[in-house]
Amino acid sequence: MTLVVADRIQETTATTGTGTLTLGGAVSGFRAFSVVGDRNECFYCIDDGAGNWEVGRGTYTGSGTTLSRDLILASSNSGSAVSFGAGTKNVWVDAPAKLLTQAALAVANVLLYGAVGNGSADDHAAIQAAIDSGLPVYFPAATYAISTGLTAGNNGQSLSGPKGVILKKTAGVDALTVTGNDNEIRGITIDGNSQSGGSGLVIKGANNYVDGVESHHHSTGHGICLDGQSTTCAYNRIHACYSHDNGQIGISQNHVTDSIISDCYTYHNGYEGITIDNQSYRCLIDNCNVNANCQSGGVGGIGIDEGDLARITNCIIQATGSSLPGIKFQNNLGSMAGVNISGCVFVANGGPGIVISNNGGKTASAISVIGCRFQTNGSHSVTIDSGCNNCTVALCDLGSQTISDSGTGTILQYNQAY
Q1: Which end is more exposed in the chain, N or C (fewer Cβ atoms within 10 Å of the end residue's Cβ)?
Q2: CATH no. for residue 331?
Q3: Residue 159 to residue 293: CA distance in whole angstroms
Q4: Distance (Å, whole) CA 132 – CA 235
């Protein structure tokens, strides 16, 4: 299947309704659609001469001489398919204005690279070709099925589109992996389609900016994953993203540094809503809503393991499943220190609001909890295990629950309970 652009192709059709066009032969002085070639694609325009028109992308079939109407780009029916009435219409190969404008602006529109966007045809090769061009990649609003993971390995590239852009997995793959640096990913929804295997968006490079992405229903993977286990994954920012209904973690951080996760909403994930894990240092989580995670496992709404000098500020952590806390210092991998939690609200978590734990001698020390509010969490507001030294809990509203402190050198100041 090839996208074909050719001159002076025009035929008539008597087709009614919104379905596939049966072509009636070339208009005098023009060529027939057979020039496009069997099962190839083209952009078309159809007009009935009475004010009804449609511009789109279709597939020509030689058997039956038909032209499907796969994707509507513009029309007299507010951009939707036109239901044509009886009578003769003219249909011709067109060059849609919006695509020519984008081409003139040096934008790689995925439709111009062969993507169909009907939610079933495999668009992986076309989208990957657009990415490989190195140009800013633009996705018109449509659902793009992919059976193979996409890789963005360039530096300084953007991938974006308007509301309604969906990448839909049809196999268990990581949908989009960013290995380059200084890229922007904006406004794309990644639908895991409940496929077994793979995550949604995987960031392995540095200085990348992700804004307004939604990632959901990756049944055995993460929604968004920052992974520096084999690369330098640093200074990435995840902003205003939604990650929900994934089998594992909403937003996972593994061996990353200096990341910022801000204004995100993670909910109904099988494991944690957000993690800071495995030598992930100086990470910031700010103004996020972490709701009803740990549906099937995990350690807490936010899980921290070997995450020194992290900051968690102005977040709402609520309704964590089972008897698990809002935030858990898990310490499976090693001890950690210097984490600050401030201005957060902990509501109706199954376990305590915060657990600062001693896991087989691996401890969390010098942890500060400042200006937080706790309400109707399981057992205690804050639990500090023995061996966790020099922690501070101050200026907190503890609700009706107490602090369970078995640590050494703990500072408890100006907290209120009622």
Answers
A1: C
A2: 2.160.20.10
A3: 29
A4: 24
